[in-house]
Design the sequence.
């Protein structure tokens, strides 16, 4: 009842005003707002707002343009929405194991070479012990660039280190083995009789144990995921080349500024709307801008306001 009385009162005020001033008078009957646009009443309009994940420009629903910005981290804006930005192994600080990319998929960040083990996505070296290596005497390599002293033979019946096998006490005399006899070519290895001997160095890109065999020069190629790349060809770190795939339009390889990573850098509104007075303009990455609207009796054609004598 109260609402009906308010509307009736407003109508009573409005009718004389129309009669006095003619048809062009607009009377605010939405009780308190300055304009019909702000009121959002039956004949007004409430502009839309950006929602999480929106990017580029959108129609605000009231004839204007809504600028929702760019995607975090320079991510691709497709159809006015930011796609999930998957993380790479390097971005996650992972050098081994499997880890989520943040977009629902698992990344294989590789395995560890030689005696290295994967702990908290990092390759770590856990030194060997005399017990784990089965050594009873002499010095052995610890697998991490150091050495361990496993003591001397104290049993008079087994006085010779290496006489009972590699770094084991026995009665027989020990015959030292060379690096070549053991199939080793880098780092330091035991000669089987309690003494460490140097076996040389590796030439880059190979490293000692790099292919997973201790004291042997080698190289384990990196994967695209380990390198954080997803397009075109990249070096695998071992003298070879990896094909990391192609990008889906509007993304291009390196398009966001990072080599061999798919991305797209949107145009700014001033650049996209250059030479246009009205209508939409693409941002080049799946989004669009509104470059303005035409006044009464004009229509927008190809970005220009053209007089329409039919209005």
Sequence:
């Amino acid at each position: 009842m109260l609402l009906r009385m308010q509307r009736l009162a407003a109508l009573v005020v409005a009718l004389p005003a129309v009669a006095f001033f003619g048809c062009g008078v607009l009377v605010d009957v939405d009780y308190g707002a300055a304009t019909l646009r702000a009121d959002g009443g039956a004949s007004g309009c409430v502009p839309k707002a950006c929602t999480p994940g929106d990017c580029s420009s959108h129609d605000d629903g009231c004839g204007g343009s809504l600028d929702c910005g760019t995607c975090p981290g320079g991510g691709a804006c497709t159809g006015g929405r930011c796609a999930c930005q998957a993380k790479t192994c390097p971005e996650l600080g992972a050098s081994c194991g499997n880890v989520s990319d943040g977009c629902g998929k698992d990344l294989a960040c590789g395995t560890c070479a030689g005696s290295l083990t994967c702990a908290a996505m990092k390759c770590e070296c856990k030194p060997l012990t005399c017990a784990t290596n089965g050594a009873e005497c002499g010095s052995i390599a610890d697998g991490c660039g150091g050495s361990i002293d496993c003591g001397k033979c104290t049993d008079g019946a087994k006085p010779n280190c290496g006489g009972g096998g590699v770094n084991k006490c026995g009665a027989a005399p020990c015959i030292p083995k060379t690096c070549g006899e053991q199939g080793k070519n880098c780092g330091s290895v035991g000669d089987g009789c309690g003494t460490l001997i140097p076996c040389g160095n590796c030439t880059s890109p190979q490293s000692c144990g790099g292919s997973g065999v201790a004291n042997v020069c080698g190289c384990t190629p990196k994967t695209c995921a380990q390198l954080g790349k997803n397009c075109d060809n990249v070096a695998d770190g071992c003298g070879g080349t990896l094909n990391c795939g192609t990008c889906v339009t509007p993304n291009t390889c390196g398009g966001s500024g990072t080599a061999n990573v798919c991305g797209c850098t949107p145009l700014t509104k001033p650049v996209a709307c250059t030479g246009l007075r009205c209508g939409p303009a693409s941002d080049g990455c799946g989004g669009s801008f509104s470059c303005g609207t035409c006044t009464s009796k004009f229509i927008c054609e190809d970005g220009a306001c053209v007089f329409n004598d039919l209005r």
About this structure: Helices lie at 2-21, 36-39, 89-92, 224-227, 269-272.
